[in-house]
């Protein structure tokens, strides 16, 4: 990153040294949420202000908003080393949120800790295990769509839902039932608050930054630490400032801001940093629009993204029944915006007035195309121009405003007598959004234009799409309002060219049936043969009649859940209680290379979602998908590696199991930004379970690197990235220096080729003392248990 730059804060910018304790005293008590009536935000803000007072006196400089929130949650503000990009901070988050696919492993790990109840407010959200359909299905009695999909999910996932419900009741965790909505929308509607610090077991947890919260995606082991009452470790993030000026108009939307920023920073440009938006353009967009930007910020590798508190947030809080929190924020505002003169490690400026609508993709979310050049890019690259499907909703773009703007385009088509030319799906973000758009006639417009309304869940965005219109391997194009578009992510077809954009553009493309259509200048043909020029999308920021909560889908934990039995069948193929990992020891000699991966290797490549989601609670079963999507550098094939004991080729998990059975330790060699994408810790648990010792790569994505450490593995990086090319898949590797494993001190790999030739190279690591203790104990969970026994 460039040298720190100074940026003026917004008009509401605060000056350092302002104490808010006196301002807060006498304010009415504001519960953190209606579900936690005895846990008050006033108390959190008071503690945050006290911590910030200590930090400001130590640093004696203006603070960014990101710093205020993070440093305001330090476990020991008086003694904590604080240096951006260097120090490891010990933090005290306000809450934990978990989606059902990751909550299974997180709760299984929490159970292993032996603790009776979570130490911070925590919730489980059932949103990942519901498969979406757009055509009649035999397993749904010839039906398809939201109700049919939810009904089947409740049946096939019954044991998982029962386990999560019972674990939530036993350990004091709120449980949002299937059909309630997507975790991030539920959090925004009920739990997020300006200035808060939350961790969530999903990479798009930063969505809550649209409401001024520092919300970070983590693996389940991090969630377990926080639920156990331990401080949470985070490398002190750098801060990237994005100054917004001007205002959006016509077809431009908040999605275009993050699509442009992704094009600037790329998928790893935000790694190790919090992206902080500020400037006069902030207040020109809605709170849910800000959430969209923060949500997709995960695609640039950012720790999280955040916006300063402003009137649009206050408006959203009031509309979701939290006027008391808004009133408190108004008084506490000095700590909810950056200080004047705060410095950023990198500064980006985006003029909203000049910003064009964007379409990003295919195969990566950082390949940005302004709409004015998108058709040319399609032709130049030979991408399929004919559209096969349009999909809107998901956690990124499923707000009331998003749905209303998309419906305004669909309504114009209906008035002209035309409908969508391709399958068009709508995924409401929550039961509240679904009920409200149904009441206000928006859902009726979608149905009439030929759309299929799916359940209130993630669905196709995470690969939960039973797609039947295109054969696997057939090149085709789809466009979505989702956040991520890696190969095969949405439908399991690596030949599907997936593009991401705003819901209104998706709707226009679905009606046109072709990606070369530019709604800003091109026309459609109406039913009477006349030309139809679509007017710019429009929609209310919030529903005029207020939100309709819909069905009650929340299960509150009892006051005392100690007597609640856990619902786990020992013969289940979906749930499996965990056994502690064995220590790797201080000597890793002659380790075999399981696979040398080539190019992009995301968590989707390491541990696929889609049909594998059903095994997220059974470590041994889900390990059968380990690295089956990674490209083998030896032969450019997927899921085909040589077993060096037999000389035969086999599937990656099968060869790993063979090595483990023979007592052979193995490593993975990888390229840049290894493990980007989802927060899923299964991508770390599976290699550990199948006998892996180390992952040696050119660079890591933040969450995956931490997840590997948590499970007692060695995430290492080539000191010289060119050494990646020198390593051959048949080499044997010995990792030296573990007997004196020390923070900041590189390790040495001594390698032996198949012909006996020896060579060596240096590898770096980012372990601190606490993380080295995890390694020496075999995992962070083992270290927790050891500390408990010695206490």
UniProtKB/TrEMBL annotation:
For this protein, what does the record note about how its cofactor is bound? Binds 1 [4Fe-4S] cluster per subunit.
Protein name according to UniProt: Aconitate hydratase, mitochondrial
Task: Supply the source organism for this entry.
Answer: Tetraselmis chuii
Q: Sorted alphabetically, which SUPFAM superfamilies does this protein's record hold?
A: Aconitase iron-sulfur domain, LeuD/IlvD-like
Principal location listed in the UniProt entry:
mitochondrion
Q: Which reaction does it catalyse?
A: citrate = D-threo-isocitrate
Entry's family note: Belongs to the aconitase/IPM isomerase family.
Q: Which cofactor does it need?
A: [4Fe-4S] cluster
Cell compartments where the protein resides:
Mitochondrion
Q: What sort of enzyme, by top EC class, is this?
A: lyase
Domain annotation Aconitase A/isopropylmalate dehydratase small subunit swivel: ranges: 593-720
Record keywords, A-Z: Iron, Iron-sulfur, Lyase, Metal-binding, Mitochondrion, Transit peptide, Tricarboxylic acid cycle
- For this protein, what is any one GO molecular function term? 4 iron, 4 sulfur cluster binding
Q: Which domain of life is it from?
A: Eukaryota
């Amino acid at each position: 990153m460039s040298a720190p730059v100074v940026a003026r804060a917004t008009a509401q910018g605060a000056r350092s040294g302002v104490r808010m304790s006196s301002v807060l005293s006498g304010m009415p008590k504001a519960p953190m949420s209606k579900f936690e009536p005895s846990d008050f935000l006033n108390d959190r803000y008071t503690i945050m202000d006290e911590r910030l007072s200590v930090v400001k006196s130590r640093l004696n400089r203006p603070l960014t908003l990101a710093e205020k929130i993070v440093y305001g949650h330090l476990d020991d503000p008086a003694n904590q080393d604080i240096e951006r990009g260097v120090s490891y901070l010990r933090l005290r988050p306000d809450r934990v949120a978990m989606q059902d696919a990751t909550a299974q492993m997180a709760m299984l790990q929490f159970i292993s800790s032996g603790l009776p109840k979570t130490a911070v407010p925590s919730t489980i959200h059932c949103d990942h295990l519901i498969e979406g359909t757009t055509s009649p299905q035999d397993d749904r009695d010839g039906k398809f769509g939201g109700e049919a999909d939810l009904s089947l999910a409740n049946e096939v996932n019954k044991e998982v839902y029962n386990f999560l419900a019972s674990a939530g009741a036993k350990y004091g965790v709120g449980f949002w039932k299937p059909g309630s909505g997507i975790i991030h929308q539920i959090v925004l509607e009920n739990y997020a608050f300006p200035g808060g610090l939350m961790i969530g077991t999903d990479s798009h947890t930063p969505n809550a930054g649209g409401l001024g919260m520092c919300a970070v995606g983590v693996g389940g082991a991090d969630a377990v630490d926080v639920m156990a009452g331990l401080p949470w470790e985070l490398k002190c993030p750098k801060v990237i400032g994005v100054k917004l000026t001007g205002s959006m108009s016509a077809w431009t939307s908040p999605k275009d801001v993050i699509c442009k920023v992704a094009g600037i920073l790329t998928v790893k440009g935000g790694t190790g940093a919090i992206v902080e938006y500020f400037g006069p353009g902030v207040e020109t967009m809605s709170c849910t629009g800000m959430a969209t930007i923060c949500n997709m910020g995960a695609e640039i590798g950012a720790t999280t993204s955040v916006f300063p508190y402003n009137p649009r947030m206050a408006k959203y809080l009031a509309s979701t029944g939290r006027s008391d929190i808004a009133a408190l924020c108004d008084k506490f505002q000095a700590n909810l915006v950056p200080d004047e003169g705060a410095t950023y490690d990198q500064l980006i400026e985006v003029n909203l007035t000049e910003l064009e609508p964007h379409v990003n993709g295919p195969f990566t979310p950082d390949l940005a195309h302004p709409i004015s050049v998108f058709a040319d890019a399609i032709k130049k690259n030979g991408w399929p121009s004919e559209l096969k499907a349009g999909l809107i909703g998901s956690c990124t773009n499923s707000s009331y405003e998003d749905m209303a703007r998309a419906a305004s385009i669909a309504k114009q088509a209906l008035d002209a007598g035309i409908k969508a030319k391709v399958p068009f799906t709508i995924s409401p973000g929550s039961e509240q959004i679904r009920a409200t758009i149904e009441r206000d006639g928006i859902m009726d417009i979608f149905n009439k234009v030929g759309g299929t309304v799916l359940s209130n869940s993630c669905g196709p965005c995470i690969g939960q799409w039973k797609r039947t219109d295109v054969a696997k391997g057939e090149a085709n194009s789809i466009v979505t309002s989702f956040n991520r578009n890696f190969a095969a992510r949405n439908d399991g077809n690596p030949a599907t060219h997936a593009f991401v954009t705003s819901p209104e553009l998706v709707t226009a493309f679905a009606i046109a049936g072709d990606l070369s259509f530019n709604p800003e200048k091109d026309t459609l043909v109406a039913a009477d043969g006349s030309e139809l020029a679509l007017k710019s999308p429009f929609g209310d920021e919030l529903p005029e009649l207020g939100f309709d909560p819909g069905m009650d889908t929340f299960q509150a934990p009892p006051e005392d859940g100690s007597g609640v039995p856990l619902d786990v069948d020992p013969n289940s193929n979906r749930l499996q209680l965990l056994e502690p990992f064995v220590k790797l020891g201080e000597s890793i000699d002659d380790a075999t290379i399981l696979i040398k991966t080539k190019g992009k290797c995301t968590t989707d490549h390491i541990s696929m979602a889609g049909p594998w989601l059903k095994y997220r609670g059974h470590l041994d079963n889900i390990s059968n998908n380990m690295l089956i999507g990674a490209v083998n550098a030896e032969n450019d094939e997927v899921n085909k590696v040589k077993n060096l004991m037999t000389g035969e080729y086999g599937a990656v998990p099968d060869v790993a199991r063979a090595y483990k059975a023979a007592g052979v330790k193995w490593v993975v060699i990888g390229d840049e930004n290894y493990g980007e994408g989802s927060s899923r810790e299964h991508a770390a648990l599976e290699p550990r379970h199948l006998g892996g010792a180390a992952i040696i790569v050119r660079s890591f994505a933040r969450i995956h690197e931490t997840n590997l450490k948590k499970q007692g593995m060695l995430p290492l990086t080539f000191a010289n990235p060119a050494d990646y090319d020198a390593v051959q898949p048949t080499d044997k590797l010995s990792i030296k220096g573990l007997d004196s494993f020390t923070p900041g001190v590189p390790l040495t790999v001594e390698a032996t080729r198949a012909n006996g030739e020896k060579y060596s190279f240096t590898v770096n690591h980012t372990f601190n003392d606490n993380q080295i203790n995890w390694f020496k104990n075999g995992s962070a969970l083992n270290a927790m248990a050891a500390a408990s026994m010695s206490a």
